[in-house]
Amino acid sequence: MLENALSDRHDLKRRGVLFVLSSPSGAGKSTIARKLLADEPELGVSVSATTRPMRPGEVDGKDYHFVDLEEFRRMAADHEFLEWAHVFDNRYGTPHAPVDAMLDAGQDVLFDIDWQGAQQLHQIAGGDVVRVFILPPSMPELRDRLVKRATDSVEVIDARMARAANEVSHWDGYDYVLVNDDVERCFRDVKTILNAERLKRSRQTGLIGFIRKLTR
Ligand code: 5GP
Questions:
Q1: Nearest-CA neighbor of 113 among 22, 50, 190, 177?
Q2: What's the number of CA atoms in the CB half-sphere (13 Å) around residue 31?
Q3: Measured between alpha carbons, how far is 75 from 40 in angstroms, rounded to an integer?
Q4: Which of 58, 135, 140, 157 shows the smallest number of beta carbons within 10 Å?
Q5: Which of ligand 1's atoms lies nearest the C-alpha of 93?
Q6: What is the per-residue pLDDT for 96?
């Protein structure tokens, strides 16, 4: 009986978590996303398509699918995106098919998307979506991190700082809001959120059958 119950439990299925991480650029989101992916084998990542130029060190197909405006428009017209948005002067979109494939394979999916994407995804997938917003400890600290990153021109950094205030104003569209003043602690908190969300009763789809067998 115990053995059956245990092996049944092993078969318990759960709904995948659509795990959204948003922040103004430079708040440390990419570092946390990278650490999370390295640490969580059941977590896949959604690679967005973008029309923005590739930065030094970025890899096409890994960081983004870098496409031109014409191709982006075609993808949008062919309903290949789960969501898409204008961010700065560029377009960014989440391709639908890879997300479906990861969920079908029993994985959770990590999305590094902005508040517009988080909002759209929540409209589409509701309770499956968990939205986490990461704040910088201060605006001067954010600028400092962008300057140190040395991947953008001064004009681009100014534009990102101007946009950061707008991004931050959307904090209340998120389920969790964290301040990244210590990257290790922030990472641990993000991991705790993911694991607690995985355990939610609403995600345990095999629970009714399991309980029936348990109490038979
Ligand atoms: P970056 O150009 O710094 O890589 O990204 C700029 C912003 O676009 C970030 O806030 C990032 O989260 C957001 N972003 C990246 N991919 C997507 C996407 O597919 N959809 C949406 N809505 N935002 C995205």
A1: 22
A2: 15
A3: 30
A4: 140
A5: 19
A6: 95
Please report, for the chain, the start and end positions of each structural domain, with discontinuous segments joined by +: 2-44+107-214
- Taking the centre of ligand 1 as the mean of its atom positions, its distance from the CA of residue 87, in whole angstroms, is 7
CA dist 110 and 130 (Å) reads 10
For residue 166 the two structure tokens come to 């707008």
Q: From the CA of 84, how far away is ligand 1's center (Å)? A: 9
CB 26 within 8 A of CB 165: no
Predicted pLDDT at 11: 55
Residue with CA nearest ligand 1 atom 24: 113
Cα-based angle 124, 20, 206 (whole degrees, multiple of 5): 65
pLDDT tens for each residue of 17-57: 999 999 988 888 999 999 999 999 999 999 999 999 998 89
pTM summary value = 0.90
CB atoms within 10 A of CB 52: 14
Residue 133's H or E segment, with its range, is strand 129-135
Domain 2-44+107-214 has CATH 3.40.30.10: no
pLDDT in tens, 62-117: 999 999 999 999 999 999 999 999 987 899 999 999 999 999 999 999 999 999 99
List residues near ligand 1 (CB under 6 A). 22, 25, 48, 52, 83-85, 87, 92-94, 112-114, 116-117
Record the tokens describing residue 90, joined without a space.
Answer: 């560029």
